[in-house]
Amino acid sequence: MATKTALAIVRSVAPRLGIATPNTATGSTDVQIQQLLALVNEEGQELAARHDWQELIYPVTFSAVAVQAQGYITSLIADNLGALSYRKILNDTLWNLTKRVRICGPLTAPQFNLATAAATATGPWSEYRIRSGVLLLYPVPDAGDQIRFEFVTDSWIISGAGDSRKAAFTADDDICQLDARLVELGTIWRWKAAKGLDYAQNYQNYENAVLDAMTGNKTGGPVSMDSCNEERGKPFAVIGRSDWLQ
Known about the structure:
alpha+beta
């Protein structure tokens, strides 16, 4: 996978569309370059939202509080990684590291209301629900338990200095974290579509490249249709190989 700066992407695409190669992208006063940059940003945002790219997955660990509401997810992320938007929490990635048990979910509204309306439950096997951007756990964990989850961000750009992440290019040295080739192919068909030109073949080439990239972006595993329904987050033990089966 090739990563490139904003300027490198625009300079790569421009001559393929018959546009003079610019010396700056974000600082250009040329209307064509401004439109081209806008389409680059549009493509990057759409591409980031289309798949759980491994380049945009981050882990978060926080100390639990002994109440249902653990806080806004954006705040939990900010405490770990700074200002970074999130698109969703990845299923089956919530764990209580202290108790070494999975936190299953997400519960639906009826499931959560049923659970919390019953007699007060205790124990290590919490389940979760996200409501109004707040992470809820029930039964509540012990204060200080270390909770971890992984999430997907839609911030597909990192600044040239490496100190911030964003969802649109604002400086020439901003770096695209996605495959720059896909962004370039997507920008080309979007430009032709915006100009009323034939873009069918360009779009097909782009779609083929994206689907191929999705397949190879991260390794896969066995698919379980019941998710947490069977295990319910129960603890497990790893038993070393021995002669106990003989």
